[in-house]
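Subject: two folds for Thursday's group meeting

Dear M.,

Sorry for the delay on this. The cluster queue was jammed most of the week, so I only got both jobs back this morning. I'm pasting them in the order they finished. Each block is the input sequence followed by the predicted structure tokens. Could you check whether the formatting survives your parser before we put anything on slides? The first protein is the one we discussed after the seminar.
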Amino acid sequence: MYANIFLTPRVAEDTLVIPQEAVIDSGVRKVVFVSLGNGHFQPRDVRLGAEGNQNEYQVLDGLKEGEEIVLSAQFMLDSESRLREAIQKMLEPQKPAPAENAQTGSPAPPPGKPQPQTHEGHSADQGGLKEQKMAPAPEKVAPTDHSGHGASK
């Protein structure tokens, strides 16, 4: 005997809830943007509980009652915060290179000006490819006759 059972989760009466549209779900984490005032926002990881009947989520962790969150266009804030993070990483001083190249086993070049690449030690062998001859192109191409295609009037 089989039965189909549909369980409807209930959000507790005295619990913090937020609208679904406020949540950015990356699949790995769920983020909301909290207003810090003066046009500044902070991305905040949240742990969500049950989904309510009115397109809302129960908040288990990450937010406190009274905090203001962004309800729409948060994707723009998300892309801006990712851009800032990428720029910050680019501006950080780079870590020194390892003493040896892991792929070739040759010493890593000294930091500073990049060394020009040479093809020293490479053979001219094309990996077994042989020169192939192609058919010559025709000298004249005959025009195509389209007179049999009647245009409808």
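Second protein, same layout:
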Amino acid sequence: MDHGVRQILLNSICRHPPELYAILAGSLSDPHRVTDCRPMPPMVGPDGRLNRGRGHVQLNAPFIEYYLNMELLPANKYVLGVIHTHPSNLKNLTGGVAGSGQGDMPSIRAALQRAAEAQKNWKDFLAPIITMDADARSANIYGLDCPAGPASPYSC
């Protein structure tokens, strides 16, 4: 992860309580090198509030699609994954039921499936998690790469 990307994350989503997220982007020819990121707002729920809390965040598909089409694709870049904040005791991706719209892993698998159907060469979904050390006021980034198989750690 480029230093500039890390600084954007530290100055944005890391400054607020979990859960929040940012889109990670770069070239599909070097899919583990994140060169761009964009913090995004969660979807707005039926009550008019951002759909997020200490145990969940709903990605904002229209905003992500806009970022992809208006900025990334014209620059020959693509979405490489999503980084999001978790409470300090949760350092793994969450499970869930496919098609439920809940849980990290079902959402990741669905995104990779849609990319495959669109014939995009996107094979690995980068899904790092950030936890905050409240005492030290510092961020810990746990890198996860989610290929077609099980998630595996990687270096951020």
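Two things I noticed about the second structure. Residues 152-156 have pLDDT under 50 and may be disordered. The helical segments are 3-11, 61-72, 104-117.

Cheers,
T.
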